Automatic annotation (TrEMBL), chain B:
Pfam families linked: CCG (PF02754), Fer4_8 (PF13183)
Domain annotation Cysteine-rich: ranges: 338-422
The name this protein goes by in its record: (Fe-S)-binding protein
SUPFAM superfamilies: alpha-helical ferredoxin (SSF46548)
InterPro entries xref list: 4Fe4S_Fe-S-bd (IPR017896), 4Fe4S_Fe_S_CS (IPR017900), Cys_rich_dom (IPR004017), Helical_ferredxn (IPR009051), HmcF (IPR054810)
Source domain of life: Bacteria
Length: 226, 463
């Protein structure tokens, strides 16, 4: 079971994840239309990209935008979760052992203590996000079962992985649960809102380009005061 | 009943139809017919198929339902934080539903959607600035308005507005003859005080062509006179076109995209004909949006740029002040505390905040910013057509409280509002809430404080 899940199944999961997300990017860019979007992307590409990159970077910086500063609770929850969600899967020592075994290469690894801290932070972030979803009427009205599904899919690999790491219960079972939920996340990502892993950059980039090219970028400069 | 006499899927294209629609006072019959108007599902599907592309699809799909947009929306804040006013909810429950149901929606749904699209969003685009994914719900609401218009679900006044542009080429029934006569009348009236003042119509190869808002010649011709005086004092080589002088676009508020194209092409045709070096538009936000920001796209110009540079009035004034073409008498500057309204259409959506600040630095001694301001400023409360729709007057009046409170917080009694919609909204909020403020366009303020060059002063009569 373990061999299958970390062998062929891992291949499938990674192929779906990277292939699917790449397809989403291609589909997004091909679906942009200067006439329908009313943004002249082509003739102003360099200036537009400056605005697009600035737009994505500003929002990836904790408290980098007015919106993050006005909502400190959510900003903290968001960054606690997302920093761990990006760094831990990529740079965890255990993951890189499998990478080296199966694919013959590996990435730099995080010291164990830091990986633990990031994992705990990510779980705390997720709990904060869930609490906010329940507590605030303006978020509750938007919330659907689908949103809880996405939260659960995102939380599962962290929780199972961390329990396995603690060796407090049946290690093999928790490890298996971790691998299954991790691969589930990889497989559903391109087909769900988790596609924001790449579409965040597309959508943010597009609005940044929109402001840079058409909505004042030549008067105020490419960088919009997000 | 598939389509009514007044309420139907056909835009108004003839004077006769326009007059009969106007005759239906307050749209009484019009809205009755709307309640029976069937949705042309096939047409709606086809439009979605053609026009709903990756940007909007992605916006609708990846919305994380985080609610960060809630507090960015002045209508949410001013309506007791009603969760139904959260921008993401408003767009998901309207456009989102239409997309999810692939256009299979009914009349009652469309009427509710119309209400949301025109009374719960002014297309100020502020929410897009506060969304982590960069989802601009104002842009989507504008798209939704287009779908609603094509199906006949549009507020009565905006159906009329769109018809006005289609029939008269202006948002009001001002014919070419009326317009040219107004120019002559205003020039004559001013010539005694301002010798040599002209309002040159259709002068070719001028430096500057001036375009404006139809309500100026129709209801406030002195605004045109003031523009002429300031051009005169600045020594501007200017003209107005006899056709294509109307810069506004109620068609944009209505979602009448074909009408928008017709409207802006009239202005661009005047540019082609008269070959000015550049164009200056009046103190109007949406006119600038329609002609300068969106206009090139409606006209199908791949550069996304206007055929020649188009300046908003505030850009012209800031240039005239910094280059010394207009000089302010320091004694006559505004002494009292004064604040400034940032119009969404040319500040958030066209980056002109610095120009109004330059102007304020020349004309005011005690300038106070509203909070928030510049790109982050709130809508006046009446944008996007909201001011003009009788059916939503109550909602509009509630919406005005945001600006009322922002103005009160500055402690100023005078508000500079270089935008027709903002100016109207601020006038109405004073009427509604009586907070004891005054408000003004730039032109009359400038005329009261500008230094008149010797050679332009009226000749003293020697006796």
């Amino acid at each position: 079971m373990y061999a299958f899940l970390t062998g062929p199944m891992l291949w499938v999961a990674l192929l779906v994840f990277f292939g699917g997300l790449a397809a989403r990017v291609v589909w997004y860019v091909r679906g942009l239309s200067w006439q329908l979007d009313r943004v002249a992307y082509g003739p102003h590409l360099a200036h537009g990209l400056k605005g697009g990159i600035h737009s994505a970077l500003k929002w990836m910086l904790p408290f980098g935008t007015q919106s993050w500063r006005e909502q400190p609770y959510f900003a903290v929850a968001f960054f606690l979760f997302h920093i761990g969600a990006v760094l831990v899967p990529l740079f965890l020592a255990g993951h890189n052992i499998i990478l080296a075994e199966r694919f013959g290469f590996s990435l730099p690894v995080l010291p164990m203590g830091i990986a633990d801290a990031l994992t705990v932070a990510a779980i705390i972030g997720l709990v904060m996000i869930a609490l906010r979803r329940i507590a605030l009427t303006e978020v509750r009205i938007l919330t659907t079962a689908y949103d809880w599904f996405i939260l659960a899919v995102s939380a599962a690999p962290f929780v199972t992985g961390f329990v396995a790491r603690l060796h407090v219960a049946n290690y093999d079972a928790w490890l298996l649960a971790h691998i299954i939920t991790g691969e589930l996340l990889l497989i559903v990502a391109p087909f769900t809102k988790l596609s924001h892993i790449v579409l965040f950059f597309m959508s943010r980039g597009q609005l940044g380009m929109d402001y840079a090219i058409k909505r004042g970028g030549y008067s105020r400069g490419a960088a919009f005061p997000w | 009943m598939p389509e009514g006499t007044f309420c139907n899927r056909r835009p108004v294209n003839t004077e006769e139809d326009l007059k009969s629609l106007l005759g239906d006072k307050g749209g009484a019959q019009y809205y009755k017919e709307m309640a029976e108007l069937e949705v042309d599902v096939e047409a709606l599907k086809a439009t979605l198929q053609k026009t709903l592309q990756s940007r909007t699809k992605t916006w609708l799909e990846i919305c994380a339902h985080c609610g960060m947009c809630a507090d960015s929306c002045f209508l949410y804040r001013v309506n007791d934080r009603d969760p139904k006013q959260v921008p993401a909810y408003k767009i998901q429950s309207t456009l989102g539903e239409i997309v999810r149901k692939k256009g299979e929606v009914d009349t009652a749904f469309m009427m509710r959607t119309m209400e949301v699209a025109w009374s719960q969003c002014t297309c100020c685009n502020r929410c897009g600035m506060y969304c982590p994914h960069g989802i601009d719900m104002g842009v989507m609401f504008s798209y939704l308005r287009g779908l609603l218009f094509s199906q006949g679900f549009v507020p009565w006044e905006l159906k009329i507005g769109s018809g006005m542009h289609r029939v008269y080429g202006a948002q009001m029934d001002v014919t070419t003859e009326d317009w040219v006569e107004t120019c002559e009348w205003m020039a004559e009236e001013q010539q005694e005080e301002w010798p040599g003042l002209e309002i040159p119509v259709d002068k070719e190869d001028a430096d500057t062509m001036y375009v404006l808002n139809a309500r100026e010649p129709k209801h406030y011709p002195e605004d045109l006179a003031e523009a002429a005086i300031l051009f005169h004092l600045a020594g501007e080589n200017w003209t107005v076109p006899s056709e294509g002088w109307e810069q506004t676009s109620l068609t944009m508020f209505a979602g009448d995209w074909a009408g928008c194209k017709m409207q802006v092409e009239r202005v661009y045709a005047a540019v082609d004909k008269l070959r000015p070096k550049r164009v200056v538009g009046t103190e109007c936000g949406h006119a600038h949006r329609a002609t300068v920001i969106e206009g090139p796209y409606w006209a199908g110009l791949p550069s996304g740029q206007t055929p020649v540079p188009f300046l908003h009035y505030v850009e012209w004034v800031s240039e005239a002040l910094t280059t010394g073409k207009l000089k302010i008498d320091p004694e006559k500057r505004i002494k009292e505390p004064v604040t400034l309204q940032d119009s969404c259409n040319y500040v958030r959506n066209h980056g002109l905040a610095k120009h109004t600040r330059i102007i304020m630095s020349y004309i005011a001694e005690d300038f106070h910013e509203m909070a928030p301001n510049r790109e982050h400023n709130y809508c006046c409360g009446g944008g996007g057509g909201f001011n003009g729709i009788g059916r939503y007057r109550h909602q509009r009046n509630v919406a005005l409280k945001t600006k009322r409170d922002q103005i009160l917080a500055t402690g100023c009694k005078l508000v500079v509002a270089p935008c027709h919609n903002c100016w109207d909204a601020i006038r109405d909020l004073e009427e509604e809430y009586e907070i004891g403020i005054r408000w003004s366009f730039l032109k009359p303020l400038l005329i009261s404080m500008v230094i008149v060059p010797e050679h332009l002063k009226p000749q003293e009569e020697d006796e």
